[in-house]
Amino acid sequence: MKIFYRGFVGHSGLNPSAWMLASLLAGNLQAEAPSGSTKLARATAPEFSDVFIAGKDGFKSIRIPSVVVSKQGTVLAFAEGRAQHADQANNKLILKRSSDGGRTWGEQRMIADDGANTLNNPCAVVEEKSGRVIVMYQSYPAGLSERDGKIKPGLDGPAIVRNYVVRSDDDGVSWSKPEDVTRTTKTPERVTIVAVGPGIGIQLHHGPHAGRLIMPFNEGPFDHWNVLAVYSDDAGKNWKLGQPAPGCRVPDGNGGEISLVNEVQMVELADGSVMLNSRKWGGKALRKIAVSKDGGVTWSKIEEDAALRDPGCMASIFRYSFPAKDAKSRILYSGPDNAKRENGTVYLSYDEGKSWAVKKVLFPGSFGYSVLTALPDGTVGCLFETDNADRIVFARFALEWLESKPTQP
Description:
Layout: E1 2-3, H1 16-25, E2 31-32, E3 47-53, E4 61-69, E5 75-82, E6 92-98, E7 109-112, E8 118-126, E9 133-140, E10 162-168, E11 179-180, H2 182-185, E12 193-196, E13 199-200, E14 202-203, E15 213-220, E16 226-232, E17 240-241, E18 249-251, E19 257-259, E20 261-268, E21 274-280, E22 286-292, E23 303-309, E24 316-321, E25 330-336, E26 342-349, E27 358-366, E28 370-374, E29 380-386, E30 391-397, H3 399-403
Parallel strand pairs: 8-13
Antiparallel strand pairs: 1-2, 3-30, 4-5, 5-6, 6-7, 8-9, 9-10, 10-11, 12-15, 14-15, 15-16, 16-17, 18-19, 20-21, 21-22, 22-23, 24-25, 25-26, 26-27, 28-29, 29-30
């Protein structure tokens, strides 16, 4: 029997042999029948490859994945390279490229470095007409963190969080100088902490706002979050700030408030509407959702998706296919299906996210932030954190694996 396995040596709580056995039983490794047999067992099951490893790739911690597939079909995997195990730790933004569909990865590249300042939340999107790759992110002043209460509101000054963009026009090989877009992408009053995504942005394909680029955002004083969109109608040259979704914060019954939302991703619906899917900050341990009918400018009230369990973790939502004569509507979701950041599971909706007809474990054990993508041949990719966020792995699997019924032992 052959196990298709590239470099990954297991995750916390399982040694390599135990991980392989558990994964095979769950349908998470590809098993080939003995030579001479035409029968394949789980022939479309996922393959895994290491992308970033903390301590090995020059940083003590590597977190916060983002992944897109370029117009040329190159897989671009982004992350924060951190000097310490902390959210603000003199982070740099790093990239690895794959020209073979995520099976192997090239050398690590630095796409943004702001000296002693900390860079957070690489959020990538591909402008489909030009092929330009755009990454938006935040810069924190050196020595300050989102939790210390020292970040100030406003658009100017030495103690504010700023929003930046870098761009690549050569398939992620080289990158522009950072452009400060804070003035048009940050609420000037009240807001201290700003975060794009993390994850990916999207480009709309249908409706009156087709072509619009959207970056999902959460912002606010720490523990008092709003979710909203930042958008561009000129291929990412200029950006505008949408309005927060209503119901992001609710009364706590004691004169204060509870924030329901935090890190957020967005997906286009078939009619050109946009649905947001947010990490739960308060309320039930469920994903929070809302819909925009005007391309991300305004939103319906925040609700809970009763089908999507959330331990409090960034997760991914991704449009795989729009409804057409030869294709079903398919929206994918990936995240931990557990009370902890474990048991990474992929869900599939055929009805625009109203329900989730398919649910399959992609990776048992440690599973943190994740980002979904699709390759030109239809293969699905998932870049995710594991080993308690000390390793970032790329999984690739066929849609047939996700949609097939589990094979009985």
